[in-house]
Amino acid sequence: MPDRSKAPSIRTISQVHLPSPQRYTLDNGIPLYEINKGTQDVIKIEVAFHAGRPFERQKLAARATASLIKEGTDKKDSAAISELVDFYGGTLSTPYNLDTSNIVLYSLNRHLDKLLPVLSEVLLSPSFPADELNTYIDHSRQRLQVDLQKNDVVAYRVITECIFGAEHPYGYNSYPETYAELNREVLLDHYRRNYTKENCIIFVSGKSSPEVIDKINKYLGQKMQSGIAEEINLPMDLPPPQKIRIPHPGAVQTAIRIGCRLFSRKHPDYSGMYVVNTILGGYFGSRLMMNIREKKGYTYNISSSMDTMHQDGCFYVGTEVGNAFLAATKEEIYKEMHKLQTTLVERKELEMVRNYLLGNLLTMLDGPFNIGEVVKTIVLEGLEEETFEDLVRTFRTITPEEIQGLAKRYLKPENMWEIVVG
Fold it and tell me: Do 283 and 415 fall within a single domain?
């Protein structure tokens, strides 16, 4: 029997390898990436379009179009679509992010012939019913009203708006009047311009086969509207950082966001800054957690994050504290940034972070669906095939001196926006 009073020894992770996807081209020219690693008779098909915020002509058009595309077609209403998908044990969802709009189908292999026609119909002939749009607007405005009562939500909205700009696709925020300006023609225009074969990439993961690819080609590789793949160049203006205090009367806690503009995954310093962010506040044993939560007891949770988009990114520290600890918490946040800039990380701490990060990568490669997510990120963001291996290499070899240099370059207090809500 193992001795439960002793922690297991830490072992270095020796191999982390991303399997290469099989690439196909459908008859209509749409690229398809396949991860055929499944052991269960389940398949995931994700159809991704470059149709996010950077491609909008009106604010919120991308999110509304993605949300409503499966809520009715020329032949079926939303209830009929849901009933059919449920009957065959599948799921049809429309996850949305800032850059792309995706439609995901999970299906048992034996029912793929029944569910692929549904996916095809949703993609090719969405009707965007007016009643569904009105319901979506009402629910979104109600949810927004609730969210705006939360200090952390307001703080995040404000800091992203400040970092990128109130009119920037990555920075603008939604308001009741923004939803009120949506109508069916706005959604149809966004759909017609962006849900085209030129903007489309398909990802298949699970227990695939040549027969599965043939079926996808039959239903998704023949008909799809044509268009022009639009080139997007987003503004890069950098307004001078400020310290902004937003009162929220009656709030027991105060939300803090301290951050700055950074970069996308294409930047040569992305991998290194990922390590810096992890040491500072990117995991439970981070310096911010150990100091401000464990040692000082100012907050229950504190973290730092790197938000990465296709063409940009940002860094920020976020927490909520009791009003009495506001000044002390901010001071400690800046102290931890300063320590990274002035004192080399010790070997023991760096080894722990290396193992944590490499372990996370192993988790990201656990199963075909997770592998498919990594492949999707690399393909959609236009990264090189070696990106994942470069990330692994950085995690294994980055030195304390390199960490210190990155902290000096990107964690300058004079570049930080400071948002306090409460």
Answer: yes
